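Inputs:
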Amino acid sequence: MVSNRLRWWWAATGVLAVIVAAVAGLAFGPVGLPPAGVAVEVINLLPGVELSGGLPERQAAIVTQIRLPRVVLGLLVGAMLALAGGAYQGAFRNPLADPYLLGVAAGAGLGVTVAIALSGGQVTTGLPVTVPVAAFAGALGAVLLTYLVGAAGGRDRSPPTLILAGVAVSAFLAALQTYLLQRHIEVIREVYSWLLGRLGGATWHDVRLLLPYAIVVSVILLLLGRELDVLSVGDDEAASLGLHPQRSRYLLLAAASLGTAAAVSVSGLIGFVGIIVPHLVRLLVGSSYRLILPLSMLFGGAFLAIADLAARTVDAPREVPIGVLTAFLGGPFFILVLRTSKRVAM
Amino acid sequence: MTAAVEVRDVRVSLDRTPILHGVGLRVAAGEWVTVIGPNGAGKSTLLRTIGGLLPFTGSVSLLGTELARLKRRQRARLVATVAQQPVVPQGMVVLDYVLLGRTPYIPPLGRESAADIAAATDVLNRLDLAGFADRPLATLSGGERQRVFLARALAQAAPVLLLDEPTSALDIGHQQEVLELVDQLRHSEGLTVIATMHDLSVAGEYADRLVLMAGGRVVADGPPAEVLTAELLATHYRARVRVIPGDRGPLVVPVRG
């Protein structure tokens, strides 16, 4: 039996996880709402549907204008980060690769800082559309820098070497960012509130900003699943099988960086989703990226939506920054992956 | 007759260091040629060049077509390579791995057709690997893995097979098993085989012709008995050996001086 075909039960489990996460995200919050009413309000958003039994206007607004965009944004950001993480792991043949650890998120962060600084801090009404572009430029620059620094180690391209390069690049970019913030002290609050994760203030504007990038990136990366499988046997082998490994790799890195940048520009820096989710998916379904990537999107979205729910309920009424929460889970997980990846070379 | 592989005055540099200095080699269809030579002689580089993996000057042609004029996918249908130490992807099962060999027949962004799966299954059956189809590659023993690597190359259905040190990780029994298998497949599929090897006696046993390389050049080329001489091996390997005539090729035994 060929094991690289997406089985319906896996896809169904993923969709179910997304639905459960979305329902939980909508139903729980500082204001208690009747679940049936919440369901009716969500269904009424569909064009041409008008069910009775909805919530009073103010409560309805909590669902449609506050909780729903937040849940949708969480699902999209989680899906993008997990997808990008899976793609980076395949493209670099490195089980430790993650948008955060490779410096991609820091690069995107620097790009956004530059964009906010140049706009003079007038972003309270919603992020300008230039922000994802600036984030993408920063993300792409960072991943190329990490790749080159990692390759400077010569033939020793062991997984930790690349991550060390990513850490060095992150530190360098963070220094640039700090310098920039010192020079533009007026935007410092704006940038920091964004850095800590912005799912809290999520609006439909953010969703609209992210959605086109998310669609383009998912289409590209999901179509490249088989090429990732071929790349997993090494560049020489891939080339002798008729692939252009370097060209495939650049395309993968560009697409994954675009996805990361778009996610980071609306949500701030959220680490470790890209490493936790693809690894758990890999444990479940095996090594084929044709399964890992689509399932990582579903489970990544569900994971972040649930993490966001936890972030706003564990210490209610205050919110724990979601990046803090994912790092709290991701740190120990990273150590686990590091220990196992020593034994099995990818 | 068109040669299966024709190499003329090939020069290759890696990181600006010249590795091959004008190598020439002609391999007839159905022939088995093994390239021998001391470490650093350029054996693997020559193989990788023929496989289209390295930039070079000079000329390499496969079944009469210049390598430079072949598209990557076309080339992959003509020549298949088993590397010295192929990467074993974590968690990948044998059938999926062998299916990767069908890559040159699968359109970009496409997926394996039923015909591709049938081809891969057929190769597994022929190599006595059907029972391993669902096993992760990493759980197989060295000899079984080497058969799987071979299966992936055969799934490529290319007439030219390049084997870089196909037996270096195997014990003597499994070495013979794998090489017998290659020889059998060469006759049944009409393959042309170019291999590199370190064990000189084994190399002489299985090849029609040996090519001795040293310092990036071909220094001897001929039937095993003509290449495996104490004098040539002393010159190019700086080795003291006794050469004993054998049934097929000479047996090379190292001795202390």
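The first helix of chain B runs from residue 43 to 50. Flag for discussion at group meeting.
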